Backbone:
């Protein structure tokens, strides 16, 4: 009896989680998360810069994507590691907010975590590292704003040149970099055609396979592919000067009766009157459309063969099943209001444009609405050979549109090519020497992490990155004289990127530094990972077996209640239980 007392005097472990739950914690878990994030950063590392390589990603549905856009690659990789998904989130955030710099933000976060791993292994508390990183980020952002160069001085021509320079820089690292001089003016005109809201949804990008990239064209208005057409469409005119435009959200066709429709009549002679009434309704709608004075009738719903032929006989153009986006852009560009009825149409409900024309572009026919009075929308028609090339061109155009939009809203720029990262890095290193303690080393590590951008740009171009970085450090050591020196891709050396026209918006760099720092701090703040087991079928789990009574497997008279916590009764709970602290998981201690 006395020998049993110590056993009953022990406190049993409290099992809080379902049996089979995977828990990992401690330093090993933190290092495991850092290693996962580094592996993700390694995937996109070679895509950075003007000479960055592309990735070919083949998805299970058989679609192949060729891209060097960081956000696109991160999205298609289908990363399942819970900590590494943080890098996917910051890449998507950078793409949605800025449009460019998605690879930069992932590399910066990965490099910060790589350098912080040394401190973690040496026993520095993660909260001290986090405090140091956030202090360094505040200093870096403040320095960026000091370095910012206003780009609004001068006339309209100077402003256009600045915006085109930023667009070229954004396109310089893309698949269409060879055609940056061709696309840059087109992108700037598209952004400047928008109103104060700068809604890029009003800039349509249409893809037409075939032809050369230089056959792409800019439409100062709206263009969309010809929709499905009925008989009589070819007889309609395909060109108008200053036409009135009627936009409808209305069907202009005879509706087929439903399978369960039923019309009861007492006099067979009245059947024809019902049919005649249907025809009168549709003809009344068509007559009201013609009487409105519109030369072009467009509808988001179908326009049938009767209406098509009716309009063709009267020299009018019509198209049905126009997409909602194109209808919205047409409304903004032509001042037309979308109508749900043709009753009571007035002149102010119609829109107009300077020219309308249907053109053959490649294998498709496009309807072009040009010289619109509002002109708050634009369309870029992309041409190209392979489908993957056109898709990547569309992503490149989107990134450049976002960059130019940010330059218009925040017209301040800094030098690209790794110049601003080197200058901020030098500033942080100088600051770290003025303070004492662990923060000195942590801020110094943050400064070293910023050097990954010029180093990787040089590596991806096939240059000697060590030599390039040494020359850049020597230039930046002279402070204001060499603050804009970055990697020169053309001469395998260094150059003043501000003079050479390699400019980037300050907003892009501020967002990159902030997002990368927040992601690194988030990973460093995680000290335990809990992975719940999959749900089990009713009655199949440990609790279900314990409660089955006489039929429980391996127990003649039913198992103890504690079997629901592992199946071994009190002895297992006390002596051999696998409580939350006893479990060994993914690198946990």
Residues:
């Amino acid at each position: 009896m006395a020998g049993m007392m110590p056993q009953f005097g022990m406190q049993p472990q409290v099992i809080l989680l379902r049996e089979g739950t995977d828990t990992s914690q401690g330093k090993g878990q933190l290092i495991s998360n850092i290693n996962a994030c580094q592996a993700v950063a390694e995937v996109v590392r070679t895509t950075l810069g003007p000479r960055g390589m592309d990735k070919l990603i083949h998805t299970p549905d058989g679609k192949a994507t060729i891209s060097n856009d960081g956000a696109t690659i991160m999205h298609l990789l289908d990363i399942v590691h819970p900590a590494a998904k943080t890098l996917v989130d910051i890449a998507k955030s950078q793409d949605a907010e800025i449009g460019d710099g998605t690879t930069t933000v992932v590399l910066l976060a990965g490099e910060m975590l790589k350098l912080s791993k040394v401190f973690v292994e040496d026993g520095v508390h993660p909260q001290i590292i986090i405090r140091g990183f956030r202090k360094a980020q505040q200093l870096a952002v403040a320095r960026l704003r000091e370095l910012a160069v206003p780009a609004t001085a001068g006339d309209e021509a100077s402003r256009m040149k600045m915006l085109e320079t930023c667009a070229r820089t954004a396109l310089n690292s893309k698949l269409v970099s060879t055609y940056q001089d061709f696309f840059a003016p087109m992108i700037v005109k598209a952004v400047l055609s928008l109103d104060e809201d700068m809604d890029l949804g009003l800039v349509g990008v249409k893809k037409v396979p075939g032809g050369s990239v230089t056959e792409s064209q800019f439409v100062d208005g709206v263009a969309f592919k010809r929709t499905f057409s009925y008989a009589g469409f070819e007889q309609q005119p395909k060109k108008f000067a200053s036409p009135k435009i009627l936009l409808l959200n209305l069907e202009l066709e005879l509706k087929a009766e439903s399978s369960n429709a039923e019309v009861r009549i007492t006099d067979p002679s009245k059947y024809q009157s019902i049919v005649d009434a249907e025809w009168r309704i549709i003809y009344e709608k068509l007559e009201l459309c013609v009487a409105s004075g519109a030369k072009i009738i467009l509808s988001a719903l179908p326009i049938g063969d009767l209406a098509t032929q009716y309009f063709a006989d009267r020299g009018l153009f019509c198209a049905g099943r126009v997409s909602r986006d194109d209808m919205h852009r047409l409304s903004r560009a032509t001042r037309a209001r979308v109508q749900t009825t043709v009753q009571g149409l007035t002149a102010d409900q119609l829109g107009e444009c300077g020219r309308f024309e249907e053109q053959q572009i490649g294998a498709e026919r496009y309807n072009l609405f040009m010289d619109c009075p509002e002109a708050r929308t634009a369309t870029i028609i992309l041409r190209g050979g392979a489908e993957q090339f056109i898709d990547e061109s569309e992503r490149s155009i989107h990134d450049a549109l976002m960059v130019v939009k940010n330059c218009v809203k925040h017209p301040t720029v800094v030098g690209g090519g790794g110049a601003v990262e080197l200058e901020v890095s030098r500033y942080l290193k100088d600051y770290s020497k003025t303070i004492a303690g662990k923060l000195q080393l942590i801020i110094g590590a943050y400064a070293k992490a910023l050097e990954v951008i010029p180093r990787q740009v040089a590596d991806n171009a096939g240059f000697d990155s060590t030599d390039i970085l040494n020359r850049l450090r020597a230039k930046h050591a002279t402070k204001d004289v060499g603050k804009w020196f970055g990697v020169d891709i053309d001469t395998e050396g260094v150059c003043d990127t501000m003079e050479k026209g390699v400019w980037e918006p300050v907003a892009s760099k501020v967002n990159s530094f902030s997002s990368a720092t927040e992601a690194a701090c988030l990973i460093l703040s995680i000290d335990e990972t809990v992975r719940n087991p999959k749900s089990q079928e009713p009655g199949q789990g440990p609790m279900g077996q314990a409660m089955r009574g006489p039929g429980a497997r391996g127990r003649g008279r039913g198992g103890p209640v504690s079997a629901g916590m592992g199946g071994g009764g009190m002895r297992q709970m006390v002596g051999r239980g696998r409580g939350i602290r006893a479990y060994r998981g993914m690198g946990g201690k």
